[in-house]
Description:
Largest sheet: 4 strands, parallel
Strand content: 5-15%
Radius of gyration: 14 Å
Helix content: 40-55%
Shape: globular
Order of helices and strands: EEHEHHHEH
Amino acid sequence: MAKPLTIAVKRIHEPAGPGDGARFLVDRLWPRGVSKEKAALTAWLRPLSPSDDLRKRFHGETAGSDAAWDAFRGGYFAELDAGGAGVAAALAQFDAAVTSGPVTLLYAAKDEARNNAVALREWLRAR
């Protein structure tokens, strides 16, 4: 039986902790008010972030709507499944880190339950 993936999700504005392991920013845009030093990133896995179009559509939908969240996740998973520029390299970097210990996916959104890092963790666990 395969070892379950240890993938945490954390808002990038929270301080880095000793249990974070490898820290990967998975947003398309650099978060406001966060220095590179404070972020304490292992890497910025920008190719694993949702497209600008998908991101803008999701943020334009009714906040907190189940339908908007489901549509976002479906579109995001389709983008990840299709691959695209840099996705394979970003996944290889993620996979190398997750075999060595815990990994934390970092995001900037204010919604802790419905954001791209939560959706990405779901997709990574299911693949």
